[in-house]
Design brief:
- By secondary structure, the protein is mainly beta.
- Strands 1, 2, 3, 4, 5 and 6 form a 6-stranded antiparallel β-sheet that branches. Strands 7-8-9 form a 3-stranded antiparallel β-sheet, with no helix packed on it. Strands 10-11-12 form a 3-stranded antiparallel β-sheet, with no helix packed on it.
- Strand 5 and strand 6 form a beta hairpin.
């Protein structure tokens, strides 16, 4: 019995050292790694630990925790030298940004937010700064497209050229007055014209 107790105690101590919760103390964004501080071990710090991602060879994923994030770490059973940061988690101080099981979202420190609501079938993107899209071809298909902007430019620095004739319904303002009508543009033109 005493031998079994000793083995069980050693096993428990090993498990306690394999799975640990700590606080992010330093970041190395270039290596996608971080140093973790363990408050339950008199603030001892780990070596630089790789952060687990969902792809690193052909398809690459990247994320970094923030300083003072609470993280779960997984170590090899030889100490705090070799291990990984598995992820972070919410607690009473750092609470989830939503309470709906239908929502998947990414929220950034500057207020930018990407959110999909599977119940409402709505994808929302709130961008604190600028949004840049670059592609070989861009195709948009929708029952209705609404654009609310005080200034719309075509091409680089507003110097684009229409490659095909353009006719679309218009519902907005002309000269500051509400108006509905059509938007027309001709092949080779650098602008479109709205008329009520």
């Amino acid at each position: 019995p005493s031998g079994g107790f000793f083995i069980g105690l050693c096993t428990m101590n090993t498990l306690n050292n394999i799975i640990r919760i700590g606080i992010v103390d330093q970041l190395n964004p270039e290596a996608c790694s971080a140093v973790v501080r363990f408050e339950d071990q008199e603030d001892v710090t780990s070596s630089e630990l790789p952060i687990l991602v969902r792809g690193s060879a052909v398809n690459k994923d990247y994320w970094m925790p923030s300083i003072n994030d609470a993280v779960v770490c997984l170590f090899l059973p030889i100490g705090l030298a070799d291990g990984f940061i598995v992820g972070t988690f919410y607690n009473s101080d750092d609470t989830p940004p939503t309470n709906s099981a239908d929502i998947e979202m990414k929220q950034f420190g500057d207020g930018t937010k990407l959110l999909y609501d599977v119940g409402q079938h709505i994808l929302n993107a709130v961008i604190a700064g600028s949004l840049n899209l670059q592609s070989k071809n861009t195709n948009i298909k929708s029952d209705k497209v609404s654009i609310d902007s005080s200034d719309i430019n075509l091409g680089s620095d507003g110097d684009g050229v229409l490659t095909e004739a353009t006719i679309a319904k218009f519902d907005g303002t002309i000269g500051g007055q509400p108006a509905t009508g059509t938007i027309t543009g001709f092949k080779g033109s650098k602008s479109v014209k709205a008329s009520s």
